[in-house]
Amino acid sequence: MYRKKYAPIGSVPGTLVLDANSDRPNIQSFIYDQNHVEENICSGTLDSTEYFKELDKIISSTAKSKEVTWLDIKSVLNEETLKRIALAYSLHDLTISDIVNVPQRPKIEEQESYVLIILAIPTLEEDCTISVEQISIVVGTNYVLTFQEHDRDVFNPIRQRIRQAKGSIRKSGSDHLAYALIDAIIDNYFPILEEIGTHLEEIEEELVDNPNKSTLSDIYTAKRTLLQLRRSIWPHREIFSAILRDEFKIFKKTTRTFVRDIYDHTVEIIDVVETYRELAGGFMDIYLSSISNKLNDVMKVLTVISTIFIPLSFFAGIYGMNFENMPELHSKYGYPILLVAMFVVGATMLFIFWKKGWLSSEKISEDS
Amino acid sequence: MYRKKYAPIGSVPGTLVLDANSDRPNIQSFIYDQNHVEENICSGTLDSTEYFKELDKIISSTAKSKEVTWLDIKSVLNEETLKRIALAYSLHDLTISDIVNVPQRPKIEEQESYVLIILAIPTLEEDCTISVEQISIVVGTNYVLTFQEHDRDVFNPIRQRIRQAKGSIRKSGSDHLAYALIDAIIDNYFPILEEIGTHLEEIEEELVDNPNKSTLSDIYTAKRTLLQLRRSIWPHREIFSAILRDEFKIFKKTTRTFVRDIYDHTVEIIDVVETYRELAGGFMDIYLSSISNKLNDVMKVLTVISTIFIPLSFFAGIYGMNFENMPELHSKYGYPILLVAMFVVGATMLFIFWKKGWLSSEKISEDS
Amino acid sequence: MYRKKYAPIGSVPGTLVLDANSDRPNIQSFIYDQNHVEENICSGTLDSTEYFKELDKIISSTAKSKEVTWLDIKSVLNEETLKRIALAYSLHDLTISDIVNVPQRPKIEEQESYVLIILAIPTLEEDCTISVEQISIVVGTNYVLTFQEHDRDVFNPIRQRIRQAKGSIRKSGSDHLAYALIDAIIDNYFPILEEIGTHLEEIEEELVDNPNKSTLSDIYTAKRTLLQLRRSIWPHREIFSAILRDEFKIFKKTTRTFVRDIYDHTVEIIDVVETYRELAGGFMDIYLSSISNKLNDVMKVLTVISTIFIPLSFFAGIYGMNFENMPELHSKYGYPILLVAMFVVGATMLFIFWKKGWLSSEKISEDS
Amino acid sequence: MYRKKYAPIGSVPGTLVLDANSDRPNIQSFIYDQNHVEENICSGTLDSTEYFKELDKIISSTAKSKEVTWLDIKSVLNEETLKRIALAYSLHDLTISDIVNVPQRPKIEEQESYVLIILAIPTLEEDCTISVEQISIVVGTNYVLTFQEHDRDVFNPIRQRIRQAKGSIRKSGSDHLAYALIDAIIDNYFPILEEIGTHLEEIEEELVDNPNKSTLSDIYTAKRTLLQLRRSIWPHREIFSAILRDEFKIFKKTTRTFVRDIYDHTVEIIDVVETYRELAGGFMDIYLSSISNKLNDVMKVLTVISTIFIPLSFFAGIYGMNFENMPELHSKYGYPILLVAMFVVGATMLFIFWKKGWLSSEKISEDS
Amino acid sequence: MYRKKYAPIGSVPGTLVLDANSDRPNIQSFIYDQNHVEENICSGTLDSTEYFKELDKIISSTAKSKEVTWLDIKSVLNEETLKRIALAYSLHDLTISDIVNVPQRPKIEEQESYVLIILAIPTLEEDCTISVEQISIVVGTNYVLTFQEHDRDVFNPIRQRIRQAKGSIRKSGSDHLAYALIDAIIDNYFPILEEIGTHLEEIEEELVDNPNKSTLSDIYTAKRTLLQLRRSIWPHREIFSAILRDEFKIFKKTTRTFVRDIYDHTVEIIDVVETYRELAGGFMDIYLSSISNKLNDVMKVLTVISTIFIPLSFFAGIYGMNFENMPELHSKYGYPILLVAMFVVGATMLFIFWKKGWLSSEKISEDS
Known about the structure:
The structure is a homopentamer of 368-residue chains.
Chain A: E1 27-32, E2 37-42, H1 48-64, E3 68-73, H2 79-88, H3 93-100, E4 107-110, E5 115-124, E6 130-139, E7 143-148, H4 156-164, H5 174-186, H6 189-209, H7 213-244, H8 253-318, H9 327-330, H10 334-356, H11 361-366
Parallel strand pairs in A: 3-7
Antiparallel strand pairs in A: 1-2, 1-3, 4-5, 5-6, 6-7
Helix pairs in contact in A: 1-2, 5-8, 6-7, 6-8, 7-8, 8-10
């Protein structure tokens, strides 16, 4: 649950834990305004010279034009690529460090010429745990850079909207593009919440019908997943409320209306996560009381059987003694009288237990 | 507990998850001032042309007059209807999205020409769970639009007051109408609280008299219902306190006095919900300790019976042995002496258990 | 614990749930300044004409004089009486509604010409639950109105001080009178705290000496009472801190010094209530562990007895078998040797259990 | 834990619950500046005329001189003494009331000519509970009055420093003296924390080595003591932070630097108390699970013994039957074969239990 | 967990609890600017005269030059050394007191000519507990003093960076040096978090596979360690946020950007600690329910064996009685019929228990 690459203690701030030999990332760029759109892909499979020539071409066009440029860098470990981009967009050492040393806590930070936004995008794994990936967004006046940990397709719908000029995205500036990207990221939380909701319902049914040891580990896993989800969603709230408080000039008023929508979604996600956490917390109590109930049922069976047969065995033991002078043994009706007496005692006890409700097969079968 | 229609991830903000073929909603309109009132119903059963002609007529009269117009749209899924209304009252894309994609978290939001208020109205179902419906209210300078999920009669008393000019509603503007509508919605929480209160009292009695497995699930259901209720009432508080802080110009000072009354009600509802939650939380502890008490009683019965008869059986076993040289067996008084000894031992043990209070039938009957 | 009269959903704000035929309340009035004091009683047993003539006389003298008038209305259900008072002091519809629809949450609210303060006065019932009564205080520039639910004598000491001109009450304005009345109300919490404190100590002793099932219900009742007390005292804090923040012009600086004293008392009450709640919360844990300890003791008795006698019975059983070829049976010393062996085994086991501390009668007697 | 003298409900604010006949308190006075120091003791054993003559002399010298006067009044119940001091230093009625009606909640309060500071000084009793005493400090421009509940020697080190002109105390004003006195009071919390820390460590060891019933009551007592300590230290924080926020003109900037030091101490005390509370909270869980573990061990012993011997006894019972036709009984090797069979069965069961780890004497001895 | 040297109660503030005879500390100094760097070591093994001559030389060069001076004092107990440094850099009495009386709560404090920062550096001991050491940093305009409790090598990487002019450290002022030192201290928390994370994972596995008594003490130790870690990291957050709020002029804007990075790290550490605390809290519940499950399994074994054999023994007992008139005994097939009947009864019971799932060896072996 907690694994992170650290720079060595006391190292120069911004030290990159990079592998100079790691693959060059795919970079997909869009340059667009209301009237036209240009799309380039700088593939990591190109050879080095070609690759950087292509990259420089994309970068240089940002500086010249008033159009919005979006660079989507699909991995963050190649040193040379990062250096060129950092130089072109004058990224601060600490910004680079935040982008590379994943995962950082989600945050927003203003630098001289841009705003850095770090977000966390969760994935629900097979075993119902959460893995979190970092996406870093650098928003400048006429450009947006996105850095992903791995090449995923989370931004595909945005690409479609740019190509097809759907909505107001092509008419608006870099801040609106940033909004659209953030929105696409936050939307990823909802299907996860839904799956967890379904999972909690399953656990609930299991708790009622047939609680067993796997139920316990299911409850624990659900609690841990919710804990992770909560830790990853909470910081986003601060990010969006900081934007709404108008702390960053790059976000214009019209865009802030849309960011308010993301903020509302985030609050809702938090709400649901907290509600689920309370529900899951209650499950543990139910599980514990169901174990106790089971123990009660086991003990009732033992007690009923023992309480009936131990006294009867005692009476049988009495008449199994070898005293010479035991007149009952010689009586003709001693044996049948004893049998009847035993039956009466046993039946009386059964009746008492039935009155106490210790025999009710309904209860016993219910939780067996 | 958590089911929601989502727009696809990354779709254009304000995308409507609408069914073009869904039924046209009933729309009931009031146009009134102090002196006169006009009521129209635009029924969903009319054919398309008639329906929209009627709708346009209602809408156009809003623009012209200084009177207050109230449109009550009794379902939100017909695309054409929504589009016309959105156009007429220049509703923002995000507003439409909030109205359609139910349930949203309750909130208040100012747009250029109107304020959007989203509220949640709860219903207590048969099985003691809560279902929540969204009501969206758009408050303009001289109009109020209400969008309900289903055609319910929650606003009937308000309609009566408009028709009969009761109270100050006909003398006041659109903000006072909005207040009256909100008040009618919030009032729905009180009877639910009362029912839950009664339900908690029943559980409490059951816990004292005869706790069983259905008690456990009753406690759990009550806790979950209170959790839902809490999640749905809390956001309202922020809404009303925002109005009281005078953040929205549309609400005049005289109306704010009344909104303060709703605010007080909301705080009271929250208070009661939190108190109930604490009570219900305590129930679990009592249930657990009652299970443990029951186990104690079961074990006492087992222990008393075993402790008395196991030693006695041992003595009977001794004299059931077949050793040739056992002088007691041949003594004339061996048998009666042993019987008396056994009786004394048994009685002594019973006395000890009685001193310990393990026999007190009062206790056993109490929790059987 | 939660019972309230509601106005019907959606009714005109300020609708009174009044019975026109209910008895006219006793009204006791004081009109005083530094030099003279006049006391009137308008008894509910007078006939209607007399009653209202008397009432009007009292009311009219408020308007004319600069002296302080205090009207103590000792029940709030007679419609005619309330209407006349509301008219005379121009009370807002919502004020009347707050006074009549008891219990309201304690609060303070400014209206044009007066401040409305709603307080809760608790009574500890026989069964250690709390019942709360509402007292509404309307403070004008030269008058104070108090509305009580029932005719109680909580204000008697204040009446004495006015009659005898004790302290500074006769020299000060209506705000000081209001302070004195509030002080008398808040003082009622202290003896209740003291009684609850004594009750908690009794429970504590019971937990240590002899925990039983009534202890459990005592703990639960105490927790519920503290919950009620907390819910009723907390809102007062906001009231007094609002006065201290100088939000209400009617309270002069000299009076605010005294209100600060009430504020300190309120904080102290809250402090004690929270401390008691924590203590009572810990009781449950102790109770649970005492049940478990009892179970342990029961099981130890069973285990000691069974573990000693079951093996011994087995040996007796061996020699009770009827095999023809059992040489031990015919040996002369078989029987005494076996008896000695059994004694040694039994004694050894007892010694082992004694070493384990399972026999220590101290422990068993302690919690029996 | 909660005992307090109350003034009767509704009495004039500032009513003193005093005994006119109580002993006159010892009063120790210092009048000093940088160059000289004068010390007087006005002993409670003097006769009335002498006593008040002496007192008046001390008081009068305050008014005249610019030197700092410190009056340490070592009991607060004599009415005449209090009245004279109140008159001389024009103390507000509420101030007197706060000084006399102990214990008040610690607080700071500004009056016209002085600041009243009420502090709580704790003592750890033999039985590990806390008793709290109130010390009231009145700080004027050139005088400090301290009122103690009983004649204790908590201020002795300060007296030494004044006499010997150690540190800057003789060079500074009344605010520095007040600081020194407060510091001496707050320092009393540290040794108590240390003792409680040692006590918690002892409990912890007991929990690991040999948890028993006295452990439970030790845990409870520790929790209660920490609760009391917390309730008494928390309000001090507000006092010192109010001084640091510069709300009281009497405290000069140089003194505030020192008060910041006390503030830091207070925060540290709170920190430690909260940490201890969390530790003590965890103890309960450990205790509960240790009881359960013990029960498990008891039950394992019972189960092992019963499971081995009950089946064996059954087989012995079979061959103790008196059927005529039981061929095994007449076989020569019946008996030894059965004995071997029994041994094999018993040994097998023992082996199974050993595999399950139910026999491991290490575990059993560990918690016996 | 809580051990501290206290100055005697009521002593002069700033009293040093020093040993005049304690060893003189090693002092390592750096004097540098962009172009040159000078390094001195004033070893504690020098004789007194040499030592102080050397020390004075270092100190005097601070006053003269505009270069940055860094004095690293590697122990704080020698009185003479401290006095000289305090005099040279005009340290306030309380500053000295904070440096010497370790451990103080981490804090930041401005004095006339410098800022005092007190930090806590944790070490994870062998037994998984935390020990905390204090490092005090005094930041002046052109000097930084660091006081360590013991001579550790935590600042080595910074020394390397100064010598090799790596990063911007040699180009920046004393505030940047302070930042670098603080960064090196805070970085020490990360490896500890990682180790605790691994430890928690081990506990988790143990809980699932084979919970035993050492698991309980592991959980408790982990919780206590996290409690200590939390107590030591929280105050740092206030320190860095105070710097970010620009409360201290000595920290320039460029440096504050870097401090923001430390702040983010601190928030992340707090985040992880709180997450771990929640996880560890859940472990206790799992442990308790695993004990209960084990008890259930033990009781099932006992119940199955007892329930089968006790009734069978009873039947054997019946036919072991010595009544003369028991016809079954003389029947030829009595014995085999009884054996068959016993087998049928036993098998039936086994079948019932198997249906109940009490026999499933999978379950029993799982948690044995």
